[in-house]
Amino acid sequence: MSDTPRARALGKELRSARAESGLTMRQVGTLIGCSEAKVSRLETARRRLSPPTVRAFLDALDVRGGERDRLLRMAHDIDRTAWWESGGGLPAQLTELADAESRAVRITELSEVLIPGLLQIPEYSRALFAATEVEPQHRDRLVAARLARQQILNEPDPVRYLVLLDEAALCRAVGGRLVMADQLRAVLKTARLPNVTLQVMPFSLGGHTGLDGPFLLLEFERSKPLVHLEQRRCGAFLDAPEDVTPFQRARSTLCRTAMSPARSADLVAAYADAYEREEDTGDGRREALAEVELQR
């Protein structure tokens, strides 16, 4: 399979390895017995990246050890059907995102008004899709895809996931107060994983650099980092260094100014408690939040 997300990812890895070796495409072509044009097509996934071809490429670059094993595993897995490639009519931008998430070693997500998809429970997702006018016949499939994406957090060698969450996302009771209570309990459970970090930007912080829009920053073993931006039902990837750097700076700033993970968990728990005991007057929620405010 050529020109698939996996193939393009492997092609980028090979191009990075060649750049580090100092060899030109013409020199690699001479070493593996092909033209410069074919090397270019391999690196851009316009030519099939079979395991023997990748092995020859790595031999030419003298790539050894763990890095060689990793790239060969990518070559062997390139034709393996992943859940997002098995049909079902998922949007192309969603399959691209799922593939990038599966390859990332670190993901940073900033969310202003919603619980991020990688943390959502089914009831929250369904309520969100209904509110945003997703056609009913598509909702179950999209919920299942969202749950499948979350598997990356529990793999043997899981991605490191940093969640930067505005307090506004805790206030918006998508699906109602009981769904929201369950959702926040699920957030707390996931945040206890050793590879997951949750930091909340409280209202008391006032303005912050995350207010100019949510983003997903994906970082890889060797490939250039990507930023994924999404609006309603379309998404875009940024990979140019001058486009990605501002998001990396924003992450650093927000990590310094947001609440600590421990205090963030306290705030999320307070909201969950309040939703669980909230009456029509809403007094329970205000009392719970007042208690947390005193601890800040």
Would you write up a description of this structure?
Strands 3-2-1-4-5-6 form a 6-stranded mixed sheet, with helices on both faces. The relative contact order is 0.11. It has 296 residues and is an alpha/beta fold. The protein has helices at 5-21, 25-32, 36-43, 51-61, 65-76, 92-103, 122-131, 136-149, 168-171, 177-191, 241-257, 261-277, 283-295; strands at residues 106-111, 160-166, 196-201, 215-219, 226-231, 234-238.
Summing up helix and strand content along with how strands pair, one would put the structural category as alpha/beta
The value of Rg in angstroms is: 22 Å
* Major sheet details: 6 strands, mixed
| Poorly predicted tracts of residues | 280-284
Could you state the order of secondary-structure elements as H and E? Answer: HHHHHHEHHEHHEEEEHHH
Total helical segments: 13
What's the arrangement of strands in the largest beta sheet?
3-2-1-4-5-6
N-end to C-end Cα span = 54 Å
Mean pLDDT: 86
Large-scale geometry:
elongated
What proportion of the residues form beta strands (DSSP E)?
Answer: 5-15%
The proportion of residues forming helix, as a percent range, comes to 40-55%
Number of strands: 6
